Fold:
Amino acid sequence: MTIVNIISKVKAFMPEVSDTFTKYSQCLKENTVPIEKLVFTKNTSKNSNKYKFRNAAETNAIQQLGSEDKPLKSGQILNIS
Structure:
C-alpha cells in the first residue's frame, strides 16, 4: 500500500473521528460518563524499569510508581482513573 493510499484512508476516516470526539467531549462536559468508562487498564509486559520514556498516561504512571519505590513487575495490572 502506498503512502498516498494510507493518507487518503486516514482523511476519509477523519469525519468519524471528529464526530466521536465531539460526542464524548459533550458527555464529559455534561457529567454523563460513568467512571468505569474513564479507567485506563494496562497489563504490564515487563518490569517498570524496562519501559522507555513515552509521553503516554500509562508509561508516565508506571514510571511515577517506580520513582516512589512502588515498581510494577511484569504481568501486574495498572488501573488509572
Observations:
- The mean pLDDT is 79.
- Residues 3-29 form the longest helix (27 residues).
